[in-house]
Amino acid sequence: MDEPFGPEYVQPQQKDCPNCECCTIDLCDRGRDSVMACAGLTPAEHQATVHGCPCSAATTPHTAAWRAAQVRVTCLARDLPLRDEAEHLLRALADGRDMDTDDGGLVPQLTVRGLARLQNLRPAITPLGRMYLAARDDVRSRAVVEVIDVDRRARTARVVVAAWRPDEPVTVLLDQVTSDTDLAADTLPGRLLEAEANTQAPDVERLVLTGFRAGGEGQ
Q1: In Å, what is the CA distance from 124 to each residue of 74, 99, 170?
Q2: Mean of per-residue pLDDT scores for the chain
Q3: For residues 31 and 218, what is the distance between their CA atoms, to the nearest angstrom?
């Protein structure tokens, strides 16, 4: 009887992802739900090939890396904002004003944070840069948040923010909630929490929740 798993066994090749030219379907499925993206789930010798995969990138809405970047940039804007001159430059880029020089070395400060990039050798604001400015300008306040359910595989939780839209669930990172509250994932469904939110956000892509904390006793 032949042994199919002998020394000459070769694992079947996985299917290529139809949405990118660098990954397999399996890798993109896992990368989309990981803050490390596809590159972080790939052996070191192949990371350069999949680096920046659009299926899991922080610039692609609704990926785990995108959600993590939103939280990071919002916390940066609120807790550790840029110096006035750097923010002035970022606002100029957002308005499309032409910047001829960067005598203060401000552009590298913005690019290292992902708020700006060089485009045709000229600085340009990124979506995260616009998110930073929105976080600086938006009114943020504590809001009651109800956890609807959790998805352990995708490491996400669906919550409802009554002060925003009580009938539209919002997806957040499960690890963000458990880390902020010290609550176990299986205790979250049906629980009332609090979080800081920009409840005037026009859509779910602009709504960012930070600073989760447990609600009152008995909840």
Answers
A1: 20, 10, 30
A2: 90
A3: 37
Backbone angles phi, psi at 175, to 5 degrees: -65, -30
Tokens of 118: 């060089």
With a cut of 50, say whether residue 88 has pLDDT above it. yes
pLDDT over threshold 80, residue 7: no
Tell me the H-state helices in the chain: 25-32, 37-40, 47-50, 64-79, 84-94, 106-112, 127-137, 174-181
DSSP 84-129: HHHHHHHHHHHTT------TT-HHHHHHHTTSEEEETTEEEE-HHH
HSE of 116, CA atoms in CB hemisphere, 13 A: 27
Tokens representing residue 218 in the block: 């008995």
Tokens read off for 149: 């359910």
Phi and psi dihedrals of 135, rounded to 5? -65, -30
